[in-house]
User: What shape does this take?
Amino acid sequence: MAYASLFALLQEIVDDDVRGRIFSAVQVVIRVSLFVSLVLFPALAAFFSKVAFHDHVGEGVRMAIAAGALVTCLAGVSGAVDVYRGKIHGSPS
Assistant: This one.
C-alpha cells in the first residue's frame, strides 16, 4: 500500500524531465534499505538474545521486530511533522 502510494505521489509531484532519475534513486534506496535490514536485524536479534535473554533466541527476534516497528513509527511521525510544518509540499498548482 505504501509502495503504491509513494510512486503515485512521486508521479504527481516530480517534473517529467527528471521523473526517471527520481524513480531510479527511490528504487536504489529501497533495495539498499532491504539489504541493510537483511544484514542488520539478524545480528540485532542475536545481540538481544545473548545480552537480554541469555541465548533464548525467540525473545531476541521479538525484540528486533519491535525495534524495527519503533523505527518505522518514528519515521512516520517525523514525516507527519514535516508535512504539518510545511517542509514537505506538493508542486504549486
User: Anything to note?
Assistant: Residues 19-51 form the longest helix (33 residues). Helices lie at 2-13, 19-51, 57-85.
